[in-house]
Amino acid sequence: MAEHYDLFVIGAGSGGVRAARIAAGHGAKVGIAEDYRVGGTCVIRGCVPKKLLVYGAHFAEDIEDAAMFGWDIPEKRFVWPTLRDNVLAEVDRLEGLYRQTLQNNKVDLYEARGRLAGGGKVQLSTGETVTVDKILVAVGAWPFMPDIPGIEHAITSNEVFHLPELPKRVAIAGGGYIANEFAGIFNQFGAHVTIVNRSDTILRGYDEQVRDRLLQISMTKGIDFRFNSTFETIEKMDDGRLHLTMKGCDDMEVDQLVFATGRIPKTDDLGCEVAGVSLDDKGAIKVDEYNQTSAKGVFAVGDVTDRIQLTPVAIREGHAFADTQFGDAPRTVDYDFVPNAVFSHPPVAAVGLTESQARERFGNEVKTYTSDFRAMKNVLANRHERSLYKLVVEPVSDKVVGIHMIGPETPEILQAAAIAVKAGLTKADFDATVALHPTMAEELVLMR
Hints:
Blueprint: E1 4-10, H1 14-25, E2 30-33, H2 40-45, H3 47-66, H4 80-104, E3 108-110, E4 114-116, E5 121-124, E6 129-137, E7 141-143, E8 155-156, H5 157-160, E9 169-173, H6 177-188, E10 192-196, H7 208-220, E11 224-226, E12 230-236, E13 242-247, E14 252-254, E15 256-259, E16 263-265, H8 272-275, E17 298-300, H9 311-326, E18 340-342, E19 348-352, H10 355-362, E20 367-373, H11 376-380, E21 387-393, E22 400-406, H12 410-422, H13 427-432
Parallel strand pairs: 1-2, 1-6, 2-3, 6-17, 8-15, 9-10, 9-15, 10-11
Antiparallel strand pairs: 4-5, 5-6, 7-16, 12-13, 13-14, 18-19, 19-22, 20-21, 21-22
């Protein structure tokens, strides 16, 4: 007979695992299906291994700067396989912890792809079918790849972590956070990097001054940009190089082409039509504020809903779903003032409204305060790279409704500052706070 569950989760990523664990803690009988590895995009092929590569990339400039601080380092040599294998080993360790979490909470793990079969059933790729009271879809999103000749010769960020050797010339398609992050990584590892973007703007949605500063710094570091350009064909040469036929810029030859043009909800062959689950025009599952889909008993959280594609958001959605459905504590997720970061080189961090968004909402009376400075470390290292911090203030209430930053360690600084924005603190509250000197973060309370 088919196994029956109170809750069955399709997808063991951050949101799915959190929902399964919390629901089981509320006493539900829970099963979960995952066809690749437990942990999802963030742990296996996303923010965690990428951040480790970012750490590795930062050593390139740190070693150069060390000379001005009295350190004599005679040789700088980077060995890609060492970092790659250490990162993959850490991913293995984290996956083991996720598996242990499920086991400790008595969640049954099916190493198979789950598909909605309608009528309260989930069909597994192993041939099994389980019956359920409630189904949670948490399959995440997948990198978009365009349909152009030779696309099989390109890779996505998924495959970067497994490259057998480091390419000398890299083209990266896209202008968003993934493209700019990997551009910084490859550039610091010694590759020549070209970002190819179909528009003339990077980091669309971020504050204009901050993204302009990142563009300026990236070009100074040697990263090339080709704007208003697209790929027509990709041809693999006999020696392994890729010949890229371009529209909008000159053709180029590279060793590796990485597509980072966004992630789309992974709803293909999920059985949504059979189960009566409605999708939007981008293929995302439509849900209400309680994560309920158009099909009774079927819910969805995380990137597959394409609300805010961030791991902490998926975790909160999964937790709220489990509390609502199994903990007798209905609640929703507040999507206002969600902080975010781009781990570019240097990193960008933001929370709240950009200046243009604030002016659209509150009018031209919006106040902005900026600090444009060189970090103390950069001064002594004779590095001319400048940081930029910006506060956006609502004119009537004096509340700080946006903080936008680019510079060393800005994501670490912003996490604390985001609390102030979320709490509705005013510019006067910032001004009344004594500066912690000497730090970069003190600039947040010194802008006048």
